[in-house]
Predict the 3D structure of the following.
Amino acid sequence: MNQKIGILDSGIGGTTILKEIKKLLPTEDYIYYADGKNNPYGEKTPEEIYKIVEEIVKFLIQERNCKLIVIACNTATTRCMKKLKEHYPEIHFVGTVPAIKVACDNNYKHTLVLATPSTIDSERTKELIRDNKKDNQEIMLISCEGLANAIETHNQEKINSILQQVKEKIGKTPIDSIVLGCTHYPLIKEQINSFFPDVPLLDGSLGVAKEVRRQLEKHNLLNKKGNGNVEYIDSKE
Ligand code: DGL
């Protein structure tokens, strides 16, 4: 099935997901839609986010005939996935949510979740905590306004000042794992680790890649003849 896999994000963040999917599925071809024009999603209303994301989904389906759409963005997934699946029941979607399940399954006791304001405030994030956290585990949520945009625009000074604020907010609270709940954040793993040395950083990219493979297998949509080509589309151009 040589149709492409469509992947979208509000810019460069979803490339962290694309990289992982390509490792598992090197004979697929891809379209990566970077919606940098509308970055940041995480500081928009849920209605605004849905409208923007639906337009891109429609483009990837109707104009590009993608066989599966990866929402490589925690904000768009936590805010839009339920509605997208309702509106487009015939389309195969795979989303990205903060790796709270991974942290809980690995028995971390003091997990910090960093994500955009919209992801932190979403019902889906509350649901992930409800479904996975055990009584002896604590989860602290911090919304990092401006961080995804600072990463998108390579603003190192802003990145450092936001991470410094996060560190101050945590104070003396013990932290044994950090969930990177925005696909932009793995791009600055080194900086995050310089503020939080030796704390494991968790993200959902491997889980997303496995889910993409599972869906393609299940629906008989695997492509064995592609060569990992990626067509990049930048909404700013
Ligand atoms: N990379 C996205 C996420 O995973 C969105 C960041 C943004 O545009 O605010 O949440």
Notes: The chain has two domains: 5-96+205-234, 100-202. The radius of gyration is 17 Å.
